[in-house]
């Protein structure tokens, strides 16, 4: 199972022309774990971010992402329709708290299956030294709500 950080920065190639049309910058997903799309950074003098629906992705490979064609990019969906990991209101670094109020750690990354279009779990950090000695923790998928830097998962610890 791969984390989003495994594909962040990968080049995006257009299947029809073989031309590189951007790089993966972020992921867009719902609070119930459905991956809706990716955020791509496009080059040029004024590099810009564009939304790429997951349905436009032909394949995730080890060193690239292949899409149908560059016309697949769309305007960003409303912020009410999902969350990003690293964007302006991204969830990475947010405190993760269980429904009963127990602090779990900080959201570091998400495990996802691009072919199925779903988040499988969360990668949780308990701090720098804990990560060094024990490693990061994997938490199974649970629906969540996100407000002001706190992600509340619908589970108890």
Structure description:
By secondary structure, this protein is mainly β. The chain folds into 2 domains: 83 residues, Roll (SH3 type barrels); 59 residues, SH3 type barrels. The chain is built from 1 helix and 14 strands. It is elongated, with a radius of gyration of 16 Å. The relative contact order is 0.19.
CATH fold assignment of the largest domain: SH3 type barrels
Question: What does the largest sheet look like?
Answer: 7 strands, mixed
| Cα-atom radius of gyration | 16 Å
Classified in CATH, the superfamily of the largest domain is: PRC-barrel domain
Return the CATH class of the largest domain.
Mainly Beta
Number of domains: 2
Distance between the termini: 23 Å
Proportion of beta-strand residues? over 45%
Helical fraction: under 10%
Q: Unreliable runs, pLDDT <50, ≥5 residues?
A: none
The total count of helices amounts to 1
Order of SSEs: EEEEEEEEEEEHEEE
Named at the architecture level, the CATH assignment of the largest domain is Roll
Assembly state: single chain
Strand count: 14
Provide the residue-averaged pLDDT. 89
Per the principal axes of the C-alpha atoms, what is the gross shape?
elongated
Q: What structural class should be given to the helix and strand makeup? A: mainly beta
């Amino acid at each position: 199972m791969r984390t989003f950080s495994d594909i962040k920065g990968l080049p995006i190639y257009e299947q029809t022309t073989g031309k590189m049309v951007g790089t993966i910058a972020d992921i867009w997903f719902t609070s119930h774990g459905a991956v809706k799309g990716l955020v791509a950074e496009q080059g040029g003098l004024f590099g810009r971010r564009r939304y790429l629906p997951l349905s436009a992705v032909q394949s995730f490979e080890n060193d690239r992402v292949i899409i149908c064609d560059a016309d697949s990019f769309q305007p960003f969906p409303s912020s009410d329709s999902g969350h990003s990991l690293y964007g302006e209101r991204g969830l990475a670094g947010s405190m993760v708290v269980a429904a009963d109020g127990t602090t779990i750690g900080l959201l570091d990354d998400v495990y996802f299956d691009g072919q199925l279009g779903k988040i499988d779990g969360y990668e949780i950090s308990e701090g720098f030294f804990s990560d060094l000695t024990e490693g990061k923790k994997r938490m199974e998928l649970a629906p969540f709500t996100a407000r002001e830097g706190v992600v509340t998962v619908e589970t108890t610890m």
